[in-house]
Structure formats: C-alpha cells, structure tokens
C-alpha cells in the first residue's frame, strides 16, 4: 500500500466510563501509520479528562496524527456525539468505539484498510467478527460479520465506514435511533457494497442481550437525576459564615428571575406558562446533576455548591406545587443573603521570580469593586530545585502582599469563582492540581509563567499536552505564532485560549528606580553599560536550550578583558544544580565559584527575588532561548539570542527575521562590542514585535482579562433568553 489513507477513530462515552482508559489504549497502540482520534462525550458523563490525557501522553506515537477531545456542556447523547465526530472527522474512513469496548489487537485498523484496498470499486463499509460480553448473564457471544451488522449496528468496534457514506445518509440531522435505523437500512439495501471478513476484530460489552448501547445514556441520566433529587439536606455541614459564590448566585438569580418573569404574564394561557415552567425544572435538574458530580473529587462538595444545591431544591419544590409569586421573591432574598456579592478569585503562586506573570492581574482586581482576590502559596517541586519556600513566602510579605500558606487554605470552604494558575505542571500537592480544583466547578484560568519561545518536543509536551491545557476554562495566548501552535497541537485545538496578550507586558513601563535591587545594580555598575546574561538550565537534557557549556568561557573572558562593560548574570533558578551535574561537581563547589565570581568589580550575580530590576537596569540582554525573549524585546533595547548549532529555532515564525539569533562565538563578541562602543550591528525592530504580541496602548492585558471574565460568566449564567418575554 503506497499511501495510507487517514482513519478517524471516534471514541464515545455512553455513561459507562470505568474502562475508558483501556479502550483508549487499544486505539493508541494500533500499528496503522495514519490515525486521527476524536473523543466526544457529554460533560454529565463525568469522565476524568486528566486520566485520558495522561494515557495519551504515555502511549502516543508518531502514527497518531491528530487528537481532538470534545465535551458538550449540555447533554447530547450518543446521537449528538456521533454527529460531532462525523462532522469534524478528517479521515477517509471512520470507525467508532464506545467506552468499555476495545480492539482485539494492534492490527485492527490495518486489517480494515487492507480489506478495503483488496477490493475493486468503492466499497462502503467493512465488517468483521465481534465478541460480545453480556454482563448480566456473565457470558460471551461471538458474532460473525453477517450477524454483527444486524445486532450491533453503527457503534460496533468491528465496522469501519467510508466517511462520505455517513455524510450522504444525513446523519447530522438525526437522533440516535434514526441513525441506527438508517445504518441498518443502508446495509440491507447495499449488501454488494459491504465487505465482510471473519477475522476477529472487536470486543464489545453490553448490559444485556436485549439492550443496545444507545440505551445506556438514558439509563445513566435517569439514575443521576434520581441521585440528585434524593440528596439529603446538607446545610448542617456548611460553615455558618460560608457564602455561595457569585457565579452560582448569578445562575440562581437567572433561573428564579425567569420564573418571576413568567408569573407576570397573566395574559398567557395556563398551559403555555406550565410548559415554560417545565423548561425551568429541566434546567434545575441539569444543574442538580452537575452539582452531584462535584462530590467525587478531593474537595468533595464545596460549601458554595451545597448552598446552591439547597436553593435549587427549594425552588424546584415550589415549582412542582401551586406557588405564589411572593414565595419566589422571598427565596430570591434568601439567595442574595447567602451569596457573595463579588467574584472570589484565588491566585495559586509559587516562587517570587514568576510573580510578574500574575502581578498586574492581581493588582488590577484589587482596585475593582466586583473582585475579591486572594493569594495562596503552593510549593512547586523539581529535581533541580533548591527553593526555600519559607524564603519565597517572605519575599511576598516583604513586598506588601497578604499570602495564605497552602496548608492553611480550604478550598471547600472558600468555594472560589475563579482559580488562576501560573504553571501547568503536576509537581504540586495533589489536591491543588487542576484535575481536583476543576472538579469543584470553579473556573480555572492558566496564565503561563513564561512566554514560551521554542518548539522543542519537551516544551511542546508541557505547553500542549498536559491536563492543564484541556481542563482550564481559559488560557492566555500571547502571540499569533503561539496561538497557531496551540491550534495545531492541543487536544482542544485552541478553543479555550484567549488571544489578549500576556500580563507580564503590563509591567514594561514599571518604574523601578526606587527599587532596592535596582539601586544595588546601578551602584555596583558605576555608570558602566550593563549587559544582562540569562543562561538556561537545560545544558544537555530536555529542551537543550542552555548554551553555557559552549559560550560561557567566551562571555566571561570578554568581560575579564573589557572591564568597562558590566556583566549582570542572572542564571535560571535551576541552573546551579544543572551546572553541578554537567561538570560532575558538588553543588557547594559551584555555589562557592559563583560567590567568588560575584566579588569581581565588573560582575554581579543576580539572585534578587525578581528579574524586573535587571530588565530595567540593563542596557542589553544576552540570553538563551528563554521566556525572557519576547518580554525584553518590547523594551527597545539590544538583545542577542544564543542557540546550539542545529537546535530548534525560536517559536516566532513572524519575528525570526528580525530577532538576532546566533550559534557563533564571533557574533557574541561583536554584540558585546556593539553594546560597549555604541555601534548598531543589531538594530531593534520594536513595531513588528508590538504587533506580534497583541499589545494595546489603550488597555492593559489585566484589564482586558478581568472585563472578559465578568462578561463571559454573566453570559454563561443567562437563562431567561429561552423563556417567554
């Protein structure tokens, strides 16, 4: 086979999700060389997306060309998920798997395509043998290809379709039963176009011999709604001072407002109003179902969720009887009394050096009447890290920030509307990972601590494939190049990314003249030109951006021979241990060497809490490919980026022609001469950089983000648009 056509595998949850990771792995381990995977499900199915993403990251290989994970916020059932997959598939062929079904071995997709390729003409589908396990009778049934088409229909793991055939059947306008009927009718009428083989391909599970899989979602939905309605009143477990968060209040006020609105329309017939009230009850049932899911995570059900749940139950009880309008107003007043009047926004912070990524957003929220911000220090762990967390907390306190230690913070009691992350990694205490926090129902926002500038395999894995990139409600994209990369690689294809720039850019005009660190730098430099030098810690492994072992001697020798130029060396915080490993030295020996170097009149080792003083004090930057590149580029100062020969170039395709990048020691010397003598071999191109980074002169990134959050939450909470006006 010269060309391998793309095959789309659609993985659909049917509410039974215990073995979905096993199902996913049977897809990922297929040996067919050209596969697309589309996972589609309803949010009510309560699938653990983080586990799916971790399975993908562990087993994905180059033959998986594209993966999309899609979640419907409202229940669409099997029909809606099938339609989504067919509509968005790029493959020439499509095959479907329900959660808990599986492929028999790794050759399934190749066997399908071989069957198509071995026949002339344009066959419509290929059907093979399936084994069905009936859980109620604890027995197996083997169906040959002929039986398979009639008994399992569209969603059998042993049927593969040409995509254009499914499109031609107008499945996009059908419900699941109609879809199933159309497929069976087509197979019956076009037997000559259906390929069959008795090769053993699929394993299927079903609740009984008489139940087809499309019944599962309805059974599951009924079960969950019953659970929601049977929950006992849990108000006794809520702290008396606890309040419902503002998002829940907006939802509740929108729902009850619709009811109040309806009762004012006495000109409508009673049965019309009753129909609309039933819509409200259905919305309440949907909300109750969502809230029940919150009980499954580490934080269980937050106080805010419990208050919201009991208010909804009270409203539902009223709507099911003959109620008076005054009762609705009374319940609305109770909700207002039990609710926060502003958004509770919590920032999860780490070492103080990454604080600039959140600083402008936090400070802008402090100035607004509709936000109440809080800082919670979460320790971040890394094998090369030497962070003293008590010292890092002290930096925040010294800067005037009120900060809560993670061990003193109870998210269940707080029930925040929004949690802001600054790192995507899982190396933090488990209960604060995005998987657990997202489970509580709050909106997680991820602001990358660095403005990533390279497209390396390891960098891409952290920037695109971790649970954070899927589970976060919104993620800030800081440039068009970056967003294009996100659209290509992430499992959401960028749908939860917000193109408004990076908050670190808000600090580009920050006045640092009175800052203690700034004055210390300027004092030691004694009016000499200052070159900031930033060395990355990946000297050999991982992203492999660090060039110190190649160019370190060149840089240090230059400053030793040209003491009229001042070196401000700010290594990455993980650089010290990385250098000790690379040179097979004890960390104490490395730190002693740095201390001795820092005693030189023409060198200062920058270990100040934040890099902003160095940015302000320096005249130029010599740097590896790091997140400093775009942030320094907008300051209209000279910059040279060093890279290893043959390594991945910076991410900015739109800026590569104007960013100064080198692999040469001679270019480094030329650049330093330029700074020392004021020559202009490396001109800056500030206007092009501004355009690439979404910068606005009229509004800060922080202001744009906070305005967006408020508008978007209110839009999501709106319910009255579907009710008679």
Task: Report what the structure shows.
By secondary structure, the protein is α/β, with parallel strands linked by helices. The protein has 4 domains: 7-216, Spore Coat Polysaccharide Biosynthesis Protein SpsA, Chain A (Alpha-Beta Complex), CATH 3.90.550.10; 220-340 and 718-722; 343-507, Glycogen Phosphorylase B (Rossmann fold), CATH 3.40.50; 516-692, Glycogen Phosphorylase B (Rossmann fold), CATH 3.40.50.2000. Strand 17, helix 21 (548-561) and strand 18 form a beta-alpha-beta unit. The chain is globular and about 85 Å long. The relative contact order is 0.08.
Summary of the model, kept short:
With 725 residues, the chain is an alpha/beta fold. It is 42% helix and 17% strand. Mean pLDDT is 81; it is low at 205-236 and 721-725.
The biggest beta sheet, please?
9 strands, mixed
Determine the CATH superfamily of the largest domain: Spore Coat Polysaccharide Biosynthesis Protein SpsA, Chain A
Q: Class by helix and strand content?
A: alpha/beta
Overall form? globular
| Overall average residue pLDDT | 81
- For the secondary structure, the number of strands is 22
What portion of the residues fall into strands of 2 or more residues?
15-25%
**Rg of Cα set:** 30 Å
Distance between the termini: 62 Å
Protein name: Glycosyltransferase 2-like domain-containing protein
GO molecular function: CDP-glycerol glycerophosphotransferase activity
Pfam families: Glycos_transf_2, Glyphos_transf
InterPro entries: Glycerophosphate_synth (IPR007554), Glyco_trans_2-like (IPR001173), Nucleotide-diphossugar_trans (IPR029044), TagF_C (IPR043148)
């Amino acid at each position: 086979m010269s060309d391998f056509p793309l095959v789309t595998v659609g993985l659909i949850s049917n509410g039974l999700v215990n073995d979905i990771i096993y199902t996913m792995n049977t897809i990922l381990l297929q040996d067919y060389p050209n596969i697309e995977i589309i996972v589609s499900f309803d949010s009510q199915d309560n699938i653990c997306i983080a586990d799916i993403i971790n399975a993908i990251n562990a087993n994905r290989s180059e033959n998986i060309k594209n993966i999309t994970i899609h979640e419907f916020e409202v229940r669409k059932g099997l029909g809606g998920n099938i339609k989504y997959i067919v509509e968005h598939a790029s493959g020439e062929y499509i095959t479907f798997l329900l959660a808990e079904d599986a492929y028999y071995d790794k050759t399934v997709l190749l066997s399908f395509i071989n069957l198509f390729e071995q026949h002339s003409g344009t066959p419509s589908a290929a059907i093979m043998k399936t084994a069905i396990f009936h859980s109620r009778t604890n027995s197996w049934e083997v169906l040959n290809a002929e039986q398979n088409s009639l008994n399992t229909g569209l969603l059998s793991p042993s049927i593969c379709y040409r995509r254009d055939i499914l499109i031609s059947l107008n499945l996009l306008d059908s419900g699941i039963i109609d879809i199933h009927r159309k497929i069976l009718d087509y197979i019956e009428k076009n037997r000559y176009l259906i390929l069959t083989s008795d090769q053993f391909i699929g394993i299927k599970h079903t609740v009984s011999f008489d139940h087809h899989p499309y019944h599962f979602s309805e059974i599951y939905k009924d079960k969950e709604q019953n659970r929601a309605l049977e929950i006992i009143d849990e108000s006794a477990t809520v702290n008396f001072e606890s309040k419902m968060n503002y998002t829940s209040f907006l939802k509740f006020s929108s729902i009850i407002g619709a009811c109040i609105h309806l009762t004012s329309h006495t000109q409508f017939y009673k049965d019309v109003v009753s129909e609309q009230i039933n819509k409200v009850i259905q919305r309440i049932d949907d909300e109750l179902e969502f809230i029940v899911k919150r009980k499954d995570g580490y934080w269980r059900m937050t106080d805010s969720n419990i208050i919201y749940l009991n208010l909804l139950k009270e409203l539902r009880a009223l709507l099911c009887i003959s109620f008076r309008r005054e009762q609705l107003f009374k319940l609305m007043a109770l909700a207002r009394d039990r609710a926060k009047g502003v958004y509770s926004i919590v920032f999860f912070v780490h070492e103080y050096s990454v604080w600039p990524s959140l600083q402008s957003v936090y400070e802008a929220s402090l100035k607004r009447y509709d936000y109440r911000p809080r800082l919670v220090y979460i320790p971040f762990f890394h094998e090369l890290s030497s962070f003293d967390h008590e010292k890092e907390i002290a930096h925040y306190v010294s800067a005037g920030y009120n900060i809560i230690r993670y061990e003193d913070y109870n998210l269940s009691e707080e029930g925040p509307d929004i949690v802001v992350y600054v790192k995507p990694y899982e190396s933090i205490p488990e209960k604060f990972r995005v998987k657990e926090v997202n489970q509580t129902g709050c909106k997680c926002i991820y602001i990358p601590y660095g403005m990533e500038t390279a497209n390396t395999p390891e960098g891409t894995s952290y920037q695109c494939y971790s649970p954070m990139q899927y589970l976060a409600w919104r993620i800030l994209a800081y440039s068009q190049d970056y967003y294009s990369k996100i659209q290509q690689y992430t499992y959401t294809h960028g749908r939860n990314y917000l193109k408004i720039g990076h908050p670190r850019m808000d600090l580009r005009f920050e006045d640092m003249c009175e800052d203690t660190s700034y004055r210390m730098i300027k004092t030691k430099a004694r009016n000499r030109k200052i070159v900031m030098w930033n060395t990355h810690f990946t000297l050999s492994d991982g992203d492999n951006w660090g060039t110190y072992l190649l160019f370190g001697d060149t840089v240090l020798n230059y400053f030793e021979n040209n003491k009229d130029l001042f070196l401000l060396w700010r290594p990455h915080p993980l650089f010290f241990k990385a250098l000790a490993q690379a040179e097979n030295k004890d960390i104490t020996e490395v730190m002693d060497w740095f201390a001795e170097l820092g005693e030189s009149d023409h060198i200062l080792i920058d270990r100040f809490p934040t890099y902003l003083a160095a940015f302000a004090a320096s005249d130029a930057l010599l740097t590896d490919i790091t997140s400093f590149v775009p942030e320094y580029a907008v300051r209209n100062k000279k910059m040279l980026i060093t890279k290893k020969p043959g390594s991945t170039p910076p991410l900015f395709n739109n800026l590569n022609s104007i960013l100064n990048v080198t692999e040469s020691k001679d270019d480094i010397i030329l650049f330093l001469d330029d700074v020392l003598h004021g020559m202009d071999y490396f001109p800056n191109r500030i206007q092009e950089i501004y355009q690439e980074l979404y910068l606005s002169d009229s509004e800060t990134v922080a202001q744009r983000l906070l305005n967006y959050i408020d508008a978007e939450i209110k839009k999501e909470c709106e319910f009255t648009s579907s009710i008679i006006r």
